[in-house]
Amino acid sequence: MLIQWGFKALLLLSKIIDMISQRRGLMFAINHAATALIINKFFKDVPIIWILLSTQFMELLWVLFNYIGIERTSTEKDMKYVGDIHLSYMPYSHSLLTMASMSILSWFIISKGFGEPAIGLAVCIGILSHLVLDLITHSRDIAIAPFIKERKLGLGLYANFPVSAFILEIGYGIACWWIYGGSIALLAVILLFNLANLPMFVASIPGAKQKMANRPLLITSFIFVQIIVTLTLVGLLS
Ligand SMILES: [Zn+2]
Predict the structure, then answer these.
(1) CA of 32 to the centre of ligand 1 (A)
(2) Is 46 left (phi over 0), alpha (psi -120 to 50) or beta?
(3) Ligand 1 centre from 29 Cα, in Å?
């Protein structure tokens, strides 16, 4: 009996590891939001809402561009797991040049235009943080600049070291909370939303995933909701 359960647990574990290794795209929304906690620690006078929005600025732009058709996401015909989602075309929201320019531009506008240097710098760092985290986790889907198709960037942490990447990502979320000195409720939210991504890897909810196949905008909406919920929760509990 015990051996049987042990075997089943091992099987499930290997399945989860296999699914994690298929992960290529978006970093967990919760950990981008958690990054705002560290930035806020150094910019105590800046309202955290500015920082939260800046850490997810690239993703929010990605959502908008998907809705209006400038960028595209596609899925395999028969979608089984998260690896079947392809962030096939996102040269504007996720390119090195546009995001570096956006962060500098936002700093310039907020600091010089509105006379708020601290907010300007915090927002600039927030936008850059998203770029850096995505460069580490994504698998070669970040363009250097729009219209440069040849070379794409991304260390592909998940593709190369799936288990370490998953542990590292949860560890990163916890580190953000710890550095900030947040509440237990905040820690619970960070842990919960990290773990909530696990079912995305496991092909155990056939209904939900089948519905998403060939309906990329549904995926976009799903991610959009996740961004808003995580930003709101981190903001409220910080
Ligand atoms: Zn991103």
Answers:
(1) 9
(2) beta
(3) 9
Distance between Cα 1 and ligand 1 center (Å) = 45
Cα(183) to centroid(ligand 1), Å = 27
Ranges of H-type helices in 82-215: 96-108, 117-137, 157-160, 162-180, 184-195, 198-201, 206-212
For residue 184, the CA-to-ligand 1 centroid distance in Å is 27
Task: Give residue 130 CA to ligand 1 midpoint distance, Å.
Answer: 6
CA–centroid distance, 78 to ligand 1, in Å, is 25
Does pTM top 0.90 for this prediction? no
- What whole-number distance in Å separates Cα of residue 84 and Cα of residue 81? 6
156 Cα–ligand 1 center, Å: 13
CA of 59 to the centre of ligand 1 (A): 5
Phi/psi for 85 (5° steps) reads -90, 130
- Tokens for 23, please give them: 């992960």
CA–CA dist 158, 31 (Å, integer): 15
Instruction: Going residue by residue through the chain, which has 238 residues, state the pLDDT in tens, using 9 for 90 and above.
Output: 777 887 777 777 666 655 555 554 556 789 999 999 999 999 999 999 999 999 999 999 999 999 999 998 877 766 665 566 677 788 899 999 999 999 999 999 999 999 999 999 999 999 999 999 999 888 778 888 888 877 788 887 777 777 778 888 899 999 999 999 999 999 999 999 888 776 555 444 555 556 666 677 887 888 898 899 999 999 999 9
